[in-house]
Amino acid sequence: MSKLRDLYNKVYRERGDFKRDVGNDYFDPTTNHRLATESWNEIDDQEDVTEISQNKKFQKNKVLGSGLIALGLVVFISIVVFLLMKFQFGVFDQDRVSISIEGAENVQSGTVQKYKITVNNNNRLALEGAVLKVEYPDQLKPRDENFSSSSVKRESQRMLKIDLGKIKKKGSLSGELVFDVFGIKNESFPIKASVEYRPERIDSIFRKDNQLVLNVQSSVISIDIFGANEVAQGDIIENKIIIKNGGKETFSRLGLKLIFPEGFSYLKSDNDQSQDGEGNFWLVSNLEPGKDKVIEFRGFLSGNPGSTKKIRAEVIDYSEEETETTEKKLNQAEITMKMIASRMDIVHIFSGGTENNIFKAGETVRVVIKFKNNTSQWLRDLILKEKLSGAMVDKKGIVLSGSGFYDSQNDEIVWKASDFEKLKALGPDEEAQISYSFTIRKDFIPASLAETNQTVRFEAEIESLDVNSPVFENKRIKSEEGLVKIASELNAQVKGAYNDGEMAGSGPLPLEVGKETVFTMRIVMTNKFNALKNALVKINLPSGVIWKNNFEASIGEITFNERTNQAIWKIEEVPAGAGFFLDPIFSKFQIGLVPSENQLTNGRESNIVLINTVEISATDKFTEKEFSLLIDKVSTNSIEDY
Fold it and tell me: Which CATH number among 3.30.450.20, 2.60.40.10, 3.40.50.1000, 3.20.20.10 corresponds to the domain 344-486?
């Protein structure tokens, strides 16, 4: 114990100058002046100090060695894991899995094409649970032989699914799919194939994709459409379509769909074979190899000059189980037509009636036909015809200016070159005119509602063989239809009676001064041709006449204003044919008269006024023309039994 004390004092004496050999985890007072001033006893035993220092070094080296061993172990494990992983990925690489599609890229519509799909596995691991999916477009239709294998199934309307199962390492699987090819020329579409799989001893699912783009170069079914390239307003067009089978198989059920432009009107023929009767769809059955089918149709075409019109024709293959919603296009064609101005202008000008070409029975209609050559060539030997139609034409009253002939059997007026000089030859941009007149019948009586709303229609046609058109009918240029309307004919009568059925009169007859006599007045109206709307009948009574408030009407309603001494009969509509094939309409009412001495100065001959005026107004529903009628001064002379 004393040795330790001596060693302590020696080591920590105030001016110790021996070298210290202490570990880093021991405090060295020489490096900290705050502790250096402390007084310590000297330690003289240098051997003990050396022993302690060596023990400290041994402990330190022991710890360091253990750390190095642990570090080495970690490095070793990491290297082993790295080598294992490197080995594993060296066995499988997804880039070593490929999928290919082999087959024709440039195809012909209407043919059968085979495509070989191959999945290659160039890994040292097998691929498990491999599933191939093939997505195809509307232009391809899988053939039935694809489904002879139970592994091929239809995943959806446009996708096939093939269960491949296991693909061996360094192995491959392949198979063929067969499709009917449809589509129109220059159309492109892809076949897409994808395979999903799980590498052996790896839990992840991988996928590989590829596609092949097909280009339709042509079709085994050809279609051509023929017709005029220039069409004048209102021309008849004739088109011919030829469908030909250039393949090796018979097409049992083809459809031809026609898409017409705006302004086209289909002309149905007597032997029309279109499915809908409107030329939109035609059925072609059993078109054998090398055979063709010709379809012809006609129609009117109208449009603004300078505009273009297109007719498109599509050939579609319909199998027995398919409908139009699943149509397969084989080919299409179209024709473009440029609209040009009418080769001739023909217009009607009417005069003699009221505005808007409205005429009354008995009036004379004066007609002028103007025509002009719009072509750049002379038109020779023209024939002008005017077709008149309507029951109101007084055939006996037709008057032609100059020569010409009216064919009363066909209601047609004809002028030829011998009748009119300008019809011999009409130069480019030259115009001329011809006139005639006729009378609207007064004796026509409608027998039914079908004979109301009467009109007279006009259509002029000028023909020249010099007109440049392949269609003969287009050498006959027609005018737009002219039309005049016949106004309705309303008549009204106002009469009175002392005794009128249930409305009996009262008071003295003959009249006596200061005594009231009651009469029954009746208004009867007939309406010949057109219904009249919003009819209004105003009955204006003199001041000395008394409204007795006893009235009735076949239609409408009657009101009276005592301050104005005016009765008003409102009728929503006066029917056409009233008084002809329908009963006339009427109203009746009672009025009282108390004569003054000045009114009976000459007795009955004084002709006392009972109604000042009857004003009738209405609107013609057919012509939209306002109508009015005035009946003036109804007196005691109108009393039938007086």
Answer: 2.60.40.10
